[in-house]
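Example 5.3 — Cupin domain-containing protein
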Amino acid sequence: MEINADFTKRVLVHSADEPWVASPMAGVDRRMLDRIGAEVARATTIVRYAPGSHFSAHTHTGGEEFIVLEGVFQDEHGDYPAGSYVRNPPTSSHTPGSQAGCTIFVKLWQFDPADRTQFCKTMTVDPGPAQGGSASLELHRDAREKVSYHHIAADTAFEITDPGGIEVLVLDGRLREGGDQLEAGAWLRLPQGQPLQAFTGNSGARVWMKTGHLPFAKPPSA
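Solution (predicted structure tokens):
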């Protein structure tokens, strides 16, 4: 299966408009944003857990990172409320689920194979006047990528340049980019060499971002 698999093109998906697709586990549904592969896939996905649903225990051979968008995600390592950013590196394992239900944004098979750093961080930062209306929190950085969280005030320019590509998920608020309106749930991927030139609306915006990673985009290894 291939979905938005041409990394030389700009891609914008308004995920709230996409249908939910059932996963192999009852009560767990998905909105697929990009994908190369079948059930073992290099994938970027919105995943919804119904109350009481869970996946079987499994190992993340290619690594997993996710943001909890709504509700509380749970596994044997702890409870992760909305606003949590979690990295489970290659060789890590867990049994994920949610007693009350949750929605997460998750990326699979996109780690450095040698990465063994596992952590959870809370995405919060204040874009007050001292920050010039925009504040950022670095969540992760390695030789392949940088992952960050941004809280941008209303009516503020938001511009990023990275030769290795840019990926943005709007968590809430609104951005204007390339003639498009990006609201909560919008996912934008810009190819290598294309800068992000966006502007917030009157409510500002909170966004998750990954940069520099597209030169390493490839199918999952056997």
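Remark. The mean pLDDT is 93.
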